[in-house]
């Protein structure tokens, strides 16, 4: 396991992913009943933007730091308010919150979070971050195993964030196989899968697999900060949501359009939100 998210924390892809993630959680919280959030690849949960890893890459400069310098019209927009208020509290201390900490800040008293991380150091940090917090289970466990075995939650309603590192071949199969198992156990769960836009063939294979197994609708929101390159460098990212809330496609379009001038490279950002009606609808 070579991947460490500390080198990438707060980059453009994190901003897009976490802003969309907040909207998914808030939608599920429209009803009073408790929800469960699962974070299958959680990372350590909090990142030091002044630390060695972040300063080596400075990826946050074109991500959260760019958003912090953008006008209030964007940061205070109703679709960003939750995300920005959680992030701003950490950013003022030169830190960036990872997905499990963002999820924790969104929980209501009745909600719960289960966060999984396999890298020993990141898992230890994650556990320390949530030590003594009865609303959070931070577990050093393979997220793929958890996805196949720990759903459905007793709360019945909820959301799974699947955010693997994409560091080895075969990750599309890992995602597809784990989601297939999870959907067989929890047909009504909302599953949000993050992916990098780098290799077009991988992106197409992933969408194809998700389309084949999504019983409800599938919405895919993609943000490219610049056009694809022949060298297949990271130009963008996507979030594919199985069983999305009905407002998600519309909100995702608005969020991506607001972010395009802030996170795009030289005004070359493009955004797409695509919906596929499911077999069951
Ligand atoms: N979700 C985090 C966020 O948004 O702040 C970032 C997660 S990072 C992209 C992927 C993480 O997955 C890394 O911390 C890596 O150590 C961890 N990881 C890799 N393979 C795993 C597995 N099989 N189960 C759980 N975690 C894994």
From TrEMBL:
Keywords annotated in UniProt: Methyltransferase, RNA-binding, rRNA processing, S-adenosyl-L-methionine, Transferase
Superkingdom field: Bacteria
Positions marked as site (Interaction with substrate rRNA): 3
Primary enzyme class: transferase
Entry EC number(s): 2.1.1.266
Q: Which HAMAP family match?
A: 23SrRNA_methyltr_J (MF_00934)
What this protein is reported to do is described as: Specifically methylates the adenine in position 2030 of 23S rRNA.
Q: What is this protein called?
A: Ribosomal RNA large subunit methyltransferase J
- Source species of the chain: Jiella sonneratiae
Q: Which gene encodes it?
A: rlmJ
